[in-house]
Design goal:
By secondary structure, this protein is mostly helical. Helix content is 57%, strand content 6%.
């Protein structure tokens, strides 16, 4: 059975349309199932701006259905998944704005470090950063006192897996995310994976920033944090934060 969205029997009058080339502004004709078209005037190839890639984002048969997916769309897949994970994490923490802020800042630092690191997998890094502390809600239900990190760690993999499965994330990515957050939560020490190092350092940057802003970290604690960074980029970013917040 052919996907109804790509079957011409179901097409309407707007199935064929023209779009301005983003390079030379010439009009380029698109069919609704074209993933890309080349401009007849300047030869620039660009993604169909009206195509609904929703089903293709996670469908394992996307390339068979739509043809080889353009590089721009592959990037859109990663961005869409990251954004959906961010939304789910906010829903998970509900009105716990402290935890939401922590997850958002960690993801922001992770993205910054990831863009500075050759070969870094941004989708993996950002999903891991957002999901690093899910499990807190379940752990807090089991005790009346303050929840500790090791208690969150016991709940974390199952909750992270459930969120990503609900979003239909690839099984391989789910496994990698759980591996990173499991080792990070366990303070596993130096790890060769740059993706793990980035998530580790992003989490430390969030802790460092929060401690300096609240003035509840002494020089010894700051030094210990600096010694825990696993990448040069992370350590350099930490020094920038210390310099910026120490002068305010």
């Amino acid at each position: 059975m052919k996907c109804p969205g790509q079957d011409t029997k179901y097409w309407k009058d707007d199935a064929i349309f023209e779009v301005k080339c983003p390079e030379c502004r010439a009009m380029v004709e698109f069919y609704k199932d074209d993933t890309t078209r080349k401009c007849h005037k300047c030869s620039h190839r660009f993604v169909n701006p009206k195509m609904d890639f929703g089903c293709a984002t996670y469908c394992q048969f996307a390339e068979e259905c739509l043809g080889t997916l353009p590089e721009e769309f592959v990037m859109q897949q990663d961005n869409l998944l990251k954004d959906k994970v961010a939304v789910e994490v906010k829903r998970y923490f509900k009105n716990d704005f402290k935890r939401i802020s922590q997850a958002t800042k960690t993801a922001r630092y992770a993205e910054k470090l990831g863009k500075q690191t050759d070969g870094a997998n941004l989708a993996l890094i950002l999903c891991s950063a957002y999901l690093l502390h899910v499990g807190y809600v379940e752990a807090s239900k089991k005790k009346n006192s303050e929840v500790e990190e090791n208690e969150i760690r016991l709940e974390n993999p199952a909750i992270a897996t459930e969120i990503m499965q609900r979003l239909k994330a690839p099984a391989g990515l789910i496994h990698q995310v759980c591996e990173i957050i499991g080792k990070q939560q366990a303070n596993a020490g130096v790890h060769n994976s740059p993706d793990y190092q980035i998530v580790n350092d992003a989490s430390l940057l969030t802790v460092l920033e929060g401690g300096l802003k609240n003035e509840n970290q002494n020089e010894q604690e700051i030094k210990m944090l600096l010694d825990s960074f696993l990448s040069e980029n992370g350590r350099n970013e930490a020094l920038k934060i210390i310099e910026a917040l120490s002068t305010t």
